[in-house]
Q: What sequence folds into this?
């Protein structure tokens, strides 16, 4: 699948973008699918999807949101009525995928924006880390509503997805899911708000930033391309006692999160398990 190679090359990044690209690739695969003789569609198609998923994992580990979307698709395949023709079954699956993208990602982001802009006041100084499509939409919408505020974008190597850095008085910290770096906020009574679509929720408990993380290229952290005069780690591969560690994500304890803004409203971190438990089968999975 071409999309897997795009993940590997970093051409498609970000939780929502990767999930949408994967689901659209599944749509194309389903369109071209034909059930082999002597085989059942739901069994054979599930096997095909599993092979595609294995390839995607080889290119880059799946995000939690992608895993949830795959689970949704497999559930839809397993629940297909046996009396449907192949063309009808394929049309249903393609429609289900399209609905998932629209309702759980696109419309969900619009709902998040609607909730989040109510927390922005005139004169606020907002801080966000790196780049988040949801946060971007929130800031643009707040500006279009005529709200007067300043934005600080904190960036870091090696990806340098954001721009700028500032030290000053903050009223709010906004971060997208996969960008929960707000450890200092409680000490100065500064609320940290996380923007996260509900389809990214998971029952998994993560105790540290080592397990379930993703390893990046160690060369990316050993070199500072913005300051070429710093070369103390050149040739690190020849050292037996040195191994640079480039973790893609960080884990933020719930104590450091003031509120999570989702398509189900604004909830405290303690309410996430409730949403997963009560809405997963019915609302969350359409």
A:
């Amino acid at each position: 699948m071409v999309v897997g190679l795009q993940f590997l090359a970093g051409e498609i990044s970000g939780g929502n973008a990767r999930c949408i690209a994967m689901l659209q690739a599944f749509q194309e695969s389903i369109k071209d699918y034909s059930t082999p003789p002597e085989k059942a569609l739901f069994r054979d198609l599930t096997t095909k999807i599993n092979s595609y998923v294995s390839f995607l994992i080889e290119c880059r580990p799946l995000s939690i949101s992608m895993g949830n979307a795959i689970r949704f698709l497999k559930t839809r395949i397993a629940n297909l009525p046996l009396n449907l023709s192949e063309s009808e079954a394929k049309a249903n699956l393609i429609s289900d995928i399209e609905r998932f993208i629209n309702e759980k990602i696109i419309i969900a982001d619009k709902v998040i924006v609607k909730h989040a802009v109510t927390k922005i006041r005139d004169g606020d100084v907002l801080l966000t880390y790196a780049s988040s499509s949801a946060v971007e939409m929130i800031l643009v919408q707040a500006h279009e509503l005529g709200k007067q505020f300043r934005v600080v974008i904190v960036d870091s190597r090696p990806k340098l997805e954001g721009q700028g850095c500032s030290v000053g008085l903050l009223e709010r910290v906004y971060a997208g899911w996969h960008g929960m770096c707000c450890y200092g906020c409680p000490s100065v009574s500064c609320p940290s708000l996380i923007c996260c679509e509900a389809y990214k929720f998971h029952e998994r408990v993560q105790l540290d930033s080592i397990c379930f993380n993703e390893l990046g290229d160690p060369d990316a952290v050993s070199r500072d391309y913005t300051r070429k005069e710093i070369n103390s780690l050149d040739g690190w591969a020849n050292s037996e006692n040195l191994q640079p560690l480039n973790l893609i994500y960080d884990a933020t304890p719930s104590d450091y999160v003031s509120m999570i803004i989702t398509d189900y409203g604004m909830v405290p971190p303690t309410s996430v398990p409730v949403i997963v438990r009560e809405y997963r089968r019915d609302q969350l999975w359409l």
